[in-house]
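Re: Re: C-alpha cell formats

Sure, here are both.
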Amino acid sequence: MPLYETQTLKIYNSLSGEKEVFKPIHEGNVGMYVCGPTVYSNVHLGNVRTFMSFDVIFRYLLHLDYKTRYVRNITDVGHIVDDVDEGEDKIAKKARLEQLEPMEVVQRYTVDFHDILNAFNFLPPSIEPTATGHIIEQIEIIKKIIDNGIGYEANGSVYFDVVKFNKTNHYGRLSGRNIEDMLANTRDLDGQSDKRNPQDFALWKKAEPQHIMRWPSPWSDGFPGWHLECTAMSTKYLGNHFDIHGGGMDLKFPHHECEIAQNEACTGQTPVNYWMHANMLTLNGKKMAKSTGNNILPREILTGDNTILSKAFSASVARFFMLQAHYRSILDFSDDAIVAAEKGYKRLMEAISLLKEINANTKSTIDIAAWKQSCYDAMNDDFNSPILIAQLFEGVKYINLLNDGKESLNLADLELFSKAMNAFVFDVLGLEDEKVSDSNNDKLEGTVNILIEMRKQARDNKNFALSDQIRDQLIALGIQLKDGKEGTTFSV
C-alpha cells in the first residue's frame, strides 16, 4: 500500500486562503511547476530559501510514494521583467555591461545556480526547461489568445486585454484584487502607449533595433512577455490542468495572476488546483538588497568570505537554519541565528550516530509508532518543517534516555525508530551528516583522548582543580566532554 493512502496531507492554497486536503487530479501522480530563476546574476539567498521550500515539498511527496513530475524552469530569454513592459531586460543589460553574448551570461549564472543548489543538497527537478527552448510554444499560445478575442496586436506588439477578459473571468482573484480598483489607482495612458488599458500586459514585444535577443513571429521580430513562458512550459509538461504551482510570494501579482489569465483565455479552464507561495528572507531584520550592502550570497556563507557572519557555515547548517521556519513565514537571517542553528544541527547528528550504537531490549517503554505519526502530522500540516524538527528533537531526547538505560526498545521498535529518524532527517529534510573522518580528525581525536585520560587520572587522584581545568579549557576550544557509564566521550 502506498504511504499516501495512510496519510492525509493538507496544503495551504493561496487561491482559497485556506488549508485544503490534497487530492491529486490523477491518483498516485502529482504534477508540480515552480517558477525558476532569471539567470542574469548569482543566485541570492532568498532564491535558495524559496527553492529549498519546494525541494522539501518534492521530497515529501516522493516519500509519500507519489509519482511526482517536478518542473522548474530557467528564464534565459531577453524580456522585460516588470508589469509596465518598459525598460531594458536584465540579461541584455548584463551582456552589454560585461561585453558578453547574452547566452554567455545565461550559461555563467545557470552553472552558478546549479552549483549552489547541489551544494545545498537539492534534488534535481524532473524537467528543467528553458524559456528560449519554448519560443514556438509561446507564439502558438499568443495565436490562440488572439483567436479567442482576448489578445490584440498593435504596431508589432501583442497585448492581453485584461478588461475584456474580466467581463467573463475574474482577473485578480489570486492576489485579492479587483479590476475596478486597479484601474482607479493607475495613471492614464499618455497617448504614446499601444495598450488599450493600463492593466493590459505584453504577450509579445516588438524589438527595438538595439535589442539583442529577438525571434521572428507573425507580428514582428521581437521577444515574449515575462508571464508567457511559464504558461507555455507548465502546460506542455503537465497539461492544461495540473496539481501544484509554486513560487515566491513576490510572484503572486502580477506574474501568477497573469499566468492564470493566459491559461483561461487560451484553454477555457483554470490551470492549477493548489497555488503555493514561499515567503521572503530578511537579513538582520531588514530587506536584503545589494544596493544597501545588506546582502549575503549563499557561497559567502560556505566560505566565510563576508563581513556579516563570524565564521563559515556548512550548507547543511544553513539548510537546517532555513527549515526551522515554516515556508510561509518571513525568516530573518543573522549570525546569532545560524550559530544557534549549528548547535542544534550538531545535536541532531550526534544523536543519530549514537542511535546506531544502542542495543535492543526485550520490551519497549516508548510508543515509537505514536512518535512517528507525530512527525507525519507535522509534514501533513502544510509541510510544517519547524514542527517536524521539534518532533525530531523529541526523538533526540528518546535516544539519550535509551543510551542512559532509562528507557528501552525491542528490536522491531528500535528498527522502526532508526528508519524513521533517518527518513525524516535525510530523505525529507535533505540534511547531510557532514562529519569528515580525515587524518586531522584522527589526530584531534587522539589528542583529546590523551587529555581525557589525564583528566581521569586527576580525578582518581582527587585533583579536581586540574580535572576541571582540562574540561573548561576544552570547552573554550569548542570541545564538549560527556561523562557516561561507558566512560568519557567528546564532541566538537
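Second one below.
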Amino acid sequence: MTLALETTTGLTVRIRLADDWFEVCGLDRLIPGRGVAALLPDGRQAAVFTDRAGRLYALDNRDPFTGAAVLSRGLTGTHRGRPFVASPLLKQRFDLETGRCLDDDAVRVTTYEVEAA
C-alpha cells in the first residue's frame, strides 16, 4: 500500500491477525526507514516499517538467529530491488515483503498483511 504524506493524518496502521485486524499505531508515528515494535495480543511482537514511497511492511520482530526481539531496530535498504531490514545484531537481511532471509535461504520470519485505515 502506498499513501501520499498529506493524506496520512488520522490513519491507523493495522496488522491482520487470523481473521481480525489489530491496531498498531497512528500512521503519523512511522518514520520512513525506521521500525516500530508492536506487542501482539498473544505476546509475540511485530516490527512495522514504512518506506519513503509510503509502502507499509510488517514482520516478526524476533531475529531467528539470536532469538532477540530487535528487527524493529534494524537498518532498512534494498538489494536487487527487494526491500529488506538488516538485524542490528548479526546483520542478516530479511525481505520485508516475504520474510525470507537474503543471507540464508533456509531461514525466514513471519510477515503480516498490513494496512492504514
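Confidence is low (pLDDT under 50) at residues 1-7. The first strand starts at residue 12 and ends at 17.
- S.
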